[in-house]
Structure formats: structure tokens, C-alpha cells
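Continuing the series of single-chain predictions for the mutant panel. This is the parent chain; the variants come on the following pages.
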Amino acid sequence: MASRYFSRKPLSVLFDEANETGEHTLRRTLGPVQLVALGIGAIIGAGLFSITGFAAGNNAGPAVTISFVIAAVGCAFAGLCYAEFASMIPVAGSAYTYSYATMGQLMAWIIGWDLVLEYAVGAATVSISWSRYLVKFLDHFDLHFPAQLVMSPFDTATLGDGTVVSGIINFPAVVIVVLMSMLLIRGTQESSFVNGIIVALKVAVVLVFIGLGWAYINPANYQPYIPANNGVFGEFGWSGIIRAAGIIFFAYIGFDAVSTAAQEAKNPKKDMPVGILISLAICTVLYILFAYVMTGLAHYTEFRGQDGIAPVAVAIEHTPFGWLKQAIILAILAGYSSVILVMLLGQSRVFFSMSKDGFLPPVFSAIHPKFKTPWKSNLLFCLFVSLFAAFVPARVVGEMTSIGTLFAFVLVCIGIIVLRKSQPDAPRGFRTPLVPIVPVLGILTCFGMMAFLPLDTWLRLIAWMAIGMVIYVRYGKKRARY
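Parent structure:
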């Protein structure tokens, strides 16, 4: 029975799945440009426009740029490993599929369940920020949402008359999740077209912010560049920089979302590595420049307590470009929409693969006869993510996403080492360089950032994994096909 936990899905079966056609398969419509846009669409979003300010104000100060470099290094190691897997096993499912082929059934379940944190909870995080930016945008036109309808029940707000109110439900966050879910059900090609338009807008806005804001940087805001630790671990100093890296790592999850669309790529063995590595490289440069300008325009203390509300708007107030504030907020709303779109896409494709392998009920792999999308899975996650977005605070879901992402990256890096030993001659469209050095560095970097995340985040991860293990033992293990 113990051997069942370590039984692996044969690579030959995965290759057959990658090449299969018919009414129960996903439609191949994505080329390299669409895959790069898919990655950028997921990467540029919550991490850049909201978590950057939170991490600077509460953990790293202006040295948040160093945090982005540290996070990018970890991403680069993991990205190289993802690229090899994606070129070798071009099947929907991302890290779940890779783990099943290399480390066996139990580890595949663990990583698949962990990916719920990365994608589904990540979509909830971004939808909460989308809601808050929408409120600020509408306030400019004297259109005001009741404060109770844009917060979770665990959040409070102080009104203009000094009254403190508690939230009931984050209604706008629910609306955007539902809209993006409906678009996904309509089809991957249609979703990709909308995402491409949004990505072009987001990149343009980021470049405008960097270009116009650079002239108004106040060098005094960089002093001290690394604020002294205040005696609390993770609050400024080098411990704060590394903790900030762990928190903003959420900003980089887009590149691995590309790998979930492998079964919808026209030429996955060639184009998947391009989509993963190019989107990661472009966004890393933009992130560092954006964070530098942002902390140069406003002192890091002005971002304290923002918790995803609108730190970019705070920075823009230090420039004469009043119009830029509304233009950027509008672009951010569109940009967040594409992040939610890609996260929901990734989650449904992971559960699509797990369902086909028997771990989950067949409902998750049911394909719409016309649209060729896993529509029932999309509907179920629409409900699940909407509940998180409506009733859970932004900080909680953001940190849960970070630790889930880092854990996934660690397992992918381990998987490359295992596969080089067990399947050294298997065909690969891309090979990770310097194995085992690169994957080992990826493991150390990602696990190091996990170690610096708050204790309560670890406790939530452990609790989530415990729930997953119960489901696996009661259902998945008995029905798994391999």
C-alpha cells in the first residue's frame, strides 16, 4: 500500500495526453506572443500596485527594491526549472503534473492542493484590491459605495464624521470574479484577446509612471535606504528586506501560470519556455524601476497601513500630474482584471488535470461541447473565489498565496533533480542549465523566503494541507488512475 503513495504517472501517458484530440480535449489556440502576454497579464498586478507599498511601509522601506531583486533571483531559478518541465511535459496542470511524473502520487496531490492557494486565493487577493481601486476611482466623481459593502466582516473603516463601521461583504470584488469567470467559460482564445489588450494598457501605464515620476523623485526619501530594525523581527533592517521579498513574491506568480495553459498552446515544446522566461524578465525590470520611483516620490512611512488600498495614488500625489492618478487607477482596474482572469484560468486547468487522473470528481474535467472549456470547474471556482473575496481580509489571502507559490516552486526545483536522475534520456525542448546547482539554489532561495513569512501564515498553510490530506485519503487515493 505504501508504494501507492509513490506511484508515478508514466511519461508515455503524458505524451499521449499532450497529443490527443477530440471533443473532450482543450482547444490549442495560443502562440508565443499570447503566452508572453498571458504571463505579463498575471505578473503585473497586485504585487506592483498594492503589495509594493505595503511591503515598503511595513517591512523594507526604500530597500523594497532589494526585496524585488531577491524575489526575482528565486523566480529565475524556479523559472528555468519550469521551462524544462513545460517543454518536456506540455500538458495542463503545471507543477501538479510535473510532480506526478517525478515524485509520485502523494506529492502530486500535495502540490495540486497547494496550487489552490496560489491561484484561487491569489485571484481573491487581486479582486479585493480591484474593489478598493474602484472605490477610489468612483469617489473622484462623487459616486460613493457604502463602506460596509466594500470590506470583509473582519475589516473596519473610519468615515468622514469619525464613525467607525465594520464591513459586511466586499461586493465589487465578487462582481469582477463573476465577470472574469464568465469570460473564461466563453473560451480561451476570446480570453487571450481581451488579456492582450489589457496587457498593452498596463505596460504603457507602468512606463508612463516611471517616465513622468522619475523627474519628481526626492532623494531625501531614500534616507536611510535600509531603515534600522525596530527590534521586531521582519520590520526593517535585513530581516525586513527578506520578509518583504517573501511577501511580494506574490507579484511573480504569473510566469508559472503560463505553464497551466500548455495544453492550449499551438507549439508548447518551443513556445512554453519563451512565454515563461520572457514574461518573467520583462516584468522583473519593470518592477524594480517602478518600486524605485514609487519610494522616491513618497517617503516609505506614507505607505504604512495601506494594506493593498492604493499606495500608487499616494505616490502620484507628489507629482503635478493630477490627471495621471485617475488614468493610472483606471488602467490598474483593467490590469487587475487580467490578473484575475489568468489566476482563474490556471486554477481550473490544474483541477482539470487532477480530475482526469481520478483525484477529483469528473465535474472538474467536464468540457463544454461548444466552447471547449472546463466550464463546470470555472463555475465552482467562481463561487469559491467569490466567497474568499467577499469575506476574507486582503493581508491574509495575500500571504497565503505567497507561501503557496514558494512551496510550489520548491517542489518543481526538486522535480528537475529527480527527473534528471530517473529519466535522463527523455526528450526535452529546453534544458535547465547547471543542474543540480540551479535547482538547489532555487530550493534554498524559495525556502529561505518562506522561512521569513509570519508564523500565522505557516499555520494556515499547515491547516490547509491537513484538510487536503483528509480529502486525499478519503477520496483521491482510492480513485487515482496511476
